[in-house]
From TrEMBL:
It comes from Funiculus sociatus GB2-A5. This is Alpha-1,3-mannosyltransferase family protein.
C-alpha cells in the first residue's frame, strides 16, 4: 500500500512550496510527495523541490488536463473564482492509496504523514476548528440549513480545505462527475462571498459521499488550533505551541503571509532552512536592522 502527500503549486508560490517542503522533510525525510501543477507555469518550482526533496510530478498530467477541461464544461465561467484550484480533487485518482493533501501556505511541526494512520477506521480526515469558529461561512449558504440539505450533525463536520486526508476508492470518478454536476445546478447552496473556490464544493462532496469522517481536533483532550490569525501561539525552537500543546501545523488561510505579518519570522526560518537569505534582503537588514525578523 502506498501512502504520501499531494500538493498543488506553480512558480507563483515558489517560496511557499519550499517552506512547506522544508518543514515536511524536517520531520519526515522519506514520505513520498507529489506535485499537481496549478497551471502550465510550474517548471521552476517542480525542478527545485525535486532536487531538494525528491518531490515527483503527478504521473498522469494528461488526466489533470482532462479534469480541468471537464470542470470548465460543468461549471459556468462565473461560478468558480479560480477553477484550477479544483485540480486538488484529482488526488482521489492518483498513485497513492492513502494520501494527505496540503496547501502551500502551511508549515508543519511533526511527522504529518502519521495523520494517515486513522484512515484504517475512516474514509476522510481533517484537522481544524472551522466548524467551531466559522460555522458554515465560506462553505454553505443559509439555504442548506433552512432546507435540510444536510443534518445538523453532518454540518458539524465542515472543514477547511487546506489540509485533509483520504484514500483511493473513497470517491469514484463517476461519483465525482455526478456530484460536480449536482453542485453546478445548485449555486444557492454555497457561500462564495469571500472568493473561495474549492472549499464549498469539496465539503459538499465529502459530506455526501464519505460517511465515515473524523476531525482530529474533536478529541476529549482537544488539539491546538492551526490558524495563523491566532496571535497567542508561542514559539520554541522553531515550533509553535498553544500553551503546552505542540501545534500540528500552521495555516495562513485568509491571513497575509508577508514581511511583518503573522509568524513571518517562523515562515522565513523554514523557507531559508537550506540556503541564505537573498542579497536584497541581507542589504535591507543591514540598512534597517530594526525591521529584522529573527531566523
Amino acid at each position: 500500500m502506498s501512502r504520501g502527500i499531494y500538493i498543488v503549486a506553480n512558480d507563483r508560490v515558489y517560496d511557499n512550496a519550499i517552506a512547506l517542503l522544508n518543514s515536511i522533510r524536517s520531520y519526515d525525510p522519506e514520505v513520498p510527495v507529489f506535485l499537481i501543477p496549478f497551471n502550465e507555469e510550474y517548471q521552476k518550482v517542480a525542478d527545485t523541490i525535486n532536487k531538494l526533496h525528491n518531490v515527483q510530478l503527478f504521473p498522469n498530467l494528461e488526466f489533470i488536463d482532462q479534469f480541468t477541461k471537464k470542470i470548465g464544461e460543468i461549471f459556468d465561467r462565473d461560478f468558480l473564482a479560480l477553477p484550477n484550484k479544483m485540480r486538488k480533487l484529482a488526488v482521489w485518482f492518483g498513485p497513492l492509496d492513502e494520501f494527505l493533501y496540503i496547501d502551500t501556505d502551511i508549515i508543519v511541526f511533526n511527522k504529518i504523514s502519521d495523520v494517515l494512520n486513522k484512515l484504517s477506521e475512516v474514509g476522510f480526515i481533517c484537522c481544524d476548528y472551522h466548524h467551531a469558529n466559522e460555522g458554515l461561512r465560506n462553505i454553505f449558504s443559509p439555504y442548506v440549513k433552512e432546507h435540510n440539505i444536510f443534518t445538523e450533525t453532518e454540518l458539524q463536520d465542515v472543514f477547511n480545505s487546506g489540509l485533509w486526508a483520504s484514500k483511493k476508492g473513497a470517491i469514484t470518478e463517476q461519483q465525482m462527475d455526478e456530484i460536480l454536476r449536482e453542485c453546478a445546478t445548485h449555486r444557492e447552496y454555497f457561500d462564495f462571498t469571500q472568493g473561495v473556490t474549492d472549499q464549498p464544493i469539496l465539503n459538499y462532496m465529502v459530506l455526501k459521499l464519505i460517511p465515515k469522517r473524523y476531525n482530529l481536533v474533536k478529541t476529549p483532550e482537544g488539539e491546538p488550533g492551526s490558524w495563523a490569525g491566532s496571535k497567542h501561539f508561542q514559539e520554541k525552537d522553531h515550533v509553535l505551541y498553544d500553551q503546552d500543546k505542540r501545534l500540528i501545523y500552521l495555516h495562513w488561510a485568509g491571513t497575509p503571509l508577508k514581511p511583518g505579518g503573522a509568524y513571518w519570522d517562523l515562515w522565513e526560518h523554514y523557507r531559508y532552512l537550506h540556503e541564505g537569505r537573498p542579497a536584497w534582503q541581507r542589504k535591507l537588514l543591514r540598512l534597517f536592522p530594526f525591521v529584522a525578523t529573527r531566523t
